[in-house]
Specification:
Helix content is 26%, strand content 18%. It is of the alpha+beta class. A hairpin with a 4-residue loop joins strand 1 and strand 2.
Length: 72
């Protein structure tokens, strides 16, 4: 089973991703994703920014990874 890591988005959202994908998100988009929560004032600013759209995902959703095995 893959190892999941929590990744925080600038607007306060939190996701569980496979390690490979989490590192890629943080490395390729450091202004949007982090392994630690962003400061509260930055989160509030991002929540007011219309270009930072929240992802509509159900509670408990785990982002599919590049190496995720097919689900049965």
């Amino acid at each position: 089973m893959p190892t999941l890591v929590d990744v925080h988005r600038i607007n306060g959202e939190k996701y569980s991703m496979e390690t490979f994908d989490a590192r890629a998100a943080v490395r390729n988009h450091p202004n949007e994703y982090s392994f630690t929560p962003f400061p509260r004032d930055e989160q509030k600013k991002a929540q007011r920014d219309p270009s930072v759209v929240p992802y509509a995902q159900p509670e408990g959703y785990i982002a599919p990874g590049f190496f995720t095995p097919p689900q049965a």
